[in-house]
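Figure 3 (text version): structure tokens given as input.
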């Protein structure tokens, strides 16, 4: 296990023992997922029978796969996000109407984690549900624990777009990228402005979220088929760079609780009435043999890619040689009928020699160490001053 510094996070010198991998797909089945290029300007496109989604995952000080990913993003320089540590931003167009009260977002697991929950967890959940988001409902002690909230009150930023029949999804995304530098801001575009007005949706984020704690208002809102919606989920608490949870006053190293069952965090957008999944994002902390296997797989893919490129280059050269010989032979036959055929013939029969160069790919990694025995959570969660934390959270929520 990686060493921890005095702040309770992973020692930077030990970071290479852990790498974060982000994948996303249209279902819980990981075989339908593809690796997300974190901090990339290009969207990760997900499509199923429910919607088409354009996903961006941004992580401050990112250290993970794919190797060579940007360590950060301009997103974190935006005035709205200077204190945030990650963002799951997405634009989506439903393919069928979804009632506002049915669309939920949050985190869930397919296995029990109750033996992993730290002392003070119930108290922490009380803070979350009474101050941060009263719309949250959860059962962390069940066999398949979850923490969900209605999308309309849980989205930290929500923008209603135009119908794709009026303005294509690509054009709407291009406009948003140009006007807002890729940052999703609260509001609406085109006919989406009328929808916000008709539903009397407040312009301020905190008031919109509070407004949609009313179940009747959730039920009256419809996510229309064929209309673009933009949402962002972000906060300053999950520190993926150091594998830590940062609560005001101290940090808890997530690495302490990582094993083969608890090395993934799963974010989902789903229809709770039908259990249909719109998309799933999985954050996986790779370590030990899993990390070695993944890096070895990458090296094999890079080697195969280099070999394929070399073979394609050789094939292209041979093809070019054949075409050159054919063209010159045709010209020779034509020129043979003229008085200059003898001279012209001197220029034929010599084919330029070209060959593809085979690229080599070297990928090295430091020696990996296996995880040590899991340790208990320190008692700082129970020792934190409730007055200090609640005052901080109230202040931050009131200025959202």
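Below: residues designed for each position.
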């Amino acid at each position: 296990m990686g060493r921890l510094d005095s702040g309770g996070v992973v020692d930077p010198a030990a970071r290479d023992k852990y790498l974060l991998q982000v994948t996303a797909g249209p279902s819980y089945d990981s075989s339908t997922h593809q690796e997300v290029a974190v901090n990339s300007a290009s969207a990760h496109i997900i499509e199923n029978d429910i919607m088409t989604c354009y996903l961006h995952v941004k992580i401050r000080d990112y250290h993970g796969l794919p190797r060579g990913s940007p360590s950060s993003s301009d997103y974190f320089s935006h005035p709205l996000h200077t204190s945030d540590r990650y963002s799951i931003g997405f634009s989506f167009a439903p393919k069928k109407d979804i009632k506002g009260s049915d669309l939920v977002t949050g985190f869930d697991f397919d296995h029990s984690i109750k033996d992993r929950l730290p002392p003070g967890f119930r108290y922490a959940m009380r803070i979350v549900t009474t101050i941060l988001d009263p719309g949250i409902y959860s059962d962390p002690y069940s066999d398949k624990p979850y923490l969900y909230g209605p999308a309309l009150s849980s989205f930290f930023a929500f923008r209603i777009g135009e119908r794709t029949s009026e303005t294509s999804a690509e054009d709407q995304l291009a406009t948003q990228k140009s006007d807002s530098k890729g940052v999703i801001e609260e509001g609406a575009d085109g006919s989406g402005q009328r929808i916000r007005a008709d539903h009397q949706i407040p312009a301020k984020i905190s008031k919109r979220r509070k407004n949609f704690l009313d179940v009747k208002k959730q039920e009256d809102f419809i996510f229309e088929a064929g209309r673009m919606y933009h949402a962002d989920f972000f906060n300053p608490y999950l520190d993926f760079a150091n594998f830590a949870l940062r609560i005001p006053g101290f940090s808890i190293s997530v690495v302490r609780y990582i094993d083969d069952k608890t090395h993934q965090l799963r974010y989902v957008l789903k229809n709770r009435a039908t259990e249909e999944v719109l998309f799933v994002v999985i954050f996986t902390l790779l370590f030990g043999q899993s990390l070695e296997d993944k890096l070895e797989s990458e090296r094999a893919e890079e080697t195969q890619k280099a070999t394929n490129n070399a073979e394609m280059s050789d094939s292209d050269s041979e093809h070019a040689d054949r075409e050159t010989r054919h063209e010159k032979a045709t010209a020779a036959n034509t020129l043979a009928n003229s008085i200059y055929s003898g001279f012209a013939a001197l220029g034929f029969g010599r084919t330029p020699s070209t060959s593809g160069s085979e690229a080599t790919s070297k990928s090295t990694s430091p020696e990996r160490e296996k995880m040590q025995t899991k340790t208990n959570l320190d008692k700082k969660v129970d020792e934190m001053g409730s007055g200090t934390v609640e005052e901080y959270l109230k202040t931050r929520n009131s200025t959202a």
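Residues 53 and 316 are 38 Å apart (CA to CA).
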